[in-house]
Amino acid sequence: MRPDTPAENVDHPAEAARLERTAARYPEDAEALLLQAAAHLELAGDRPAATALYDRLLSSPDTLETPHLVRALKASNLWEYGHEAEARAIIDGVRAASPRDPAPWVIVAESLESHDELEAAQETFTEGAVLLLTDVPEPPYSTHPLLFGRHRVRRMLGVSHDEWDTLADALHSSSVSLDELHDPKRVWSLGSDNPAELEAEISRLRAELGAFREALSRPFPVAVLHWPEGELAELVGSYAPLAEEYPSHEEHLATIEGSLRELAASGTPNLGIVTGTVPSYEAFAASEGASPGDVDLLPQYATTLAARGRAVVWPPQRGASCWCGSGRAYGECHGG
Questions:
Q1: What is the pTM for the complete model shown?
Q2: 274 forms bridges with which residues in the sheet?
Q3: pLDDT of residue 1
Q4: Is 82 strand, coil or helix?
Q5: What is the model's pLDDT at position 220?
Q6: Contact 108, 72 (CB under 8 A)
Q7: Are the CB atoms for 183 and 190 separated by under 8 Å?
Q8: Residues 186-245: pLDDT tens digits?
């Protein structure tokens, strides 16, 4: 589906089927592709089929990159077609697992919110914020929906602002404040006969739509290419011209961290890391009609992996494992 295709013109079942076929051809990207397929099935109203895809992912012998996200999406989908008890059990499991990715927190909290479980939604948003943002000087972009959602629910509950709400206000870039956007009384203004009130509401809706479009239009991460030690040894052994680019694996890892820190210091947003493999790189080179030994092909390969959703956000969340694969926490490894 093209990004500019209007939603009402999308054949969601056909798009889901296409994504499933693509996942069969590219098993390394199956998780991301099948999640997209499940989303299309949900939009088509075929929620049982979407659940079947989530179950297929969860029962896969391959290790999932985002198991908590898959469970959160499954719970949200189940609740929408009457399986409340099972959905609640999964949501409790996701919360108990304390994932380091903000997305599962947002999904389960919004699921609770959409079913008028506002207190539970606030608790869930808060748990995620405390886990991921305590002692973090600058909240990563991926955590903004966590703070905005928490602000929205607390506004509906009528509770006073706290430090997390103040932080959400500071991160919000729209011309209309979060307090206005999340005002429960806004719905009443839509039924007003007062032209001034209607005009003000239209302005707020335009600002909200603009913020939503900005979030959707964010480019994929500026990604730096990472080679695991075994893959790098195979790569340099097979393609000698790349030895100058990669003198050693230790220097390669140090260069990645240094480059990302320089980009962050210069104000470059949305940074990420993609991990390459020699077979994947050779296939990419063949598709481009180029030699794998061509150094200029490396950034193109990294960009392609990022565009296919293979990038992981840098820096990792607090307490998460280091991106280099050492198994140590980032703060005790390259983040030290």
A1: 0.64
A2: 225
A3: 36
A4: coil
A5: 59
A6: yes
A7: no
A8: 655 555 666 776 677 777 777 766 666 655 445 556 889 999 999 999 999 999 999 999
